[in-house]
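Enoyl-CoA hydratase, pasting as requested.
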Amino acid sequence: MASSNYSYEYFNVTFPSEYVAQVEIDRPKKLNAFIDQMWINIGHIFRQLSVDPDVRVVILTAAGDRAFTAGLDVQAASESGALSDRSATDPARKALKLRRHIQEFQDDISAIEKCEKPVIAVLHGVSYGLAIDMTTCADIRLCTKDVRFSVKEVDVGLAADIGTLTRLPKAQLPMSFIKDVCLSAREFYAEEALKVGFVSAVYETKAVALEKALGMAKLIASKGPVAVQTTKEVINYSRDHSTLDGLNYIKIMNAAALQTKDVEDAIMSGLQKRKPRFAKL
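C-alpha cells follow.
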C-alpha cells in the first residue's frame, strides 16, 4: 500500500498489488468527459505517483462500461472557464490568457509522460480526443475489442493542442494514418489500432484487459526500480535526441546505476536460483 494519501475528486486511486497503483477516471455518467478540476487533479495525481517510493508502475483506466473518456466536456467549457471568458479587452490579451490556459492543461496531461514510473493505459469504449492526448503520454497502451478511437478536435473547430499532434508522429505510426485520423476525426477501432501499432494488444473485455495490465504491471514492478525508471527515462530521451546523445545519456545514468546494490542482488539471485527483492527508491 502506498504511503501517501490519494483523495482526488473524479478519480479513484487504488493499489491492486505491491508497488502497483491504479488510477481510474471516475465520471461515468458523463462518459468520463473532462471538466477543469479533472485536468488539475490528474496532474496532481501523476506528480505525486512519480515520487512515491511505494509505487513502481501505474495503470490508467476509467470507470463504467461505455467510455474511457469522451474528451473535453464541451458544454461545461462553454459555460465556465477560459473558453467562456469575455473579460479581455482585445484579441491580443484574450490570446495571452488562452495561451496560459492551454499551457496549464498541457502541463497537467504531460505529467503522465513525465511520471518516473511506467504507465500502462487500458482503453475501452468511447476514447475520443483527450483519450488520445493522455494515452500517447503512457508507455504501454492496451485496449478492448469495443474501443472507439477518434482524434475528435477538428469536429469542434480546433486543432488538438494537448499533445496528440506532437506525440503521435513520434509514436512510430505511419504518417499517412496519423494525418488520416487527425484531419478527418473519423473513428478507428481496435483492429486498426493494433495493425498500425497504436496499441500493443486487444482484449475481449475491460475486465480481461485490466487483468492483463495488472499481470504486466506486477512483472515490471518485480524488476529493479532504478533499472526500470532509468530505462523509461533513456528511451524517452533518445526518442527526442540523436543516437550519440542517447548513448552519452545512458552512459551517465548507468555510471550511477552500476554502483547500486540492485546489480549485485540481481546477479546473486540468478546464481542462487531465487527471486530478487529490490529496495525502495
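Note for the archive: The first strand starts at residue 11 and ends at 17.
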